[in-house]
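INSTRUCTION: Work out how this chain folds

Fields: amino acid sequence; protein backbone structure tokens

Chain under study, with its fold:
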Amino acid sequence: MTLIGRTRARGVESLSLDSPDTRNALSAALVGELTDALKDCAKDTGVRAIVLTHTGNTFCAGADLRDPPPPEALVALLRQIVELPRPVVARVTGHVRAGGLGLLAACDIAAASHEATFAFTEVRIGVAPAVISLPILPRTDPRALARYYLTGERFTAPEAARVGLLTTHADDVDEALAPILDGLRRSAPEALAETKALLTAKVLETFDRDAADLTALSARLFSSAQAREGMTAFLERRDPEWVV
């Protein structure tokens, strides 16, 4: 069973996270398939831009707690999106949690419907938004991010746009994306690649400087006693022992 749907229209390749039964959680298998699909797009000169979207009511629920990818694999996927010589556009019509926000931030442009909600839920299961900070921290408002990182609160699409996680939001996300995709189709491919490189240089500096440390932090926290309790509580649909 494939976990990534693929369609193409006028040079725009749509890659759809297609595991609605797991709320498109980032399993080792899904990360591997998405990595391979992006490699194909990078080699295909017929692909002018990529839309990263989803099936079901959740764009991505974060890491699959039953089959999580190694932190190194998630870092590599996020960097691959940032470095890809084609613009990557996120199209979101559902909920985004934890690691899914890393995917969102790695994309060059992100649009969401007003049905979407967002939350950094890592602290509530005993870990931290470590590797996903690589694309998030250079692109977002640090004061707002402190609130949402530390509390795990949900927030809306307008708020996600205000803090820098979204480019645009609308009742009809496809209507909002239409002029953006038209602009990408009208742009010269080499010029797009060089312009993207200008825009992502600071993000890649963060990867170069911090990826190893944040990968180690993620691995340490995921193996901690608090993470085991938090993940067990999440799967059992109860509060973890530290809730007061």
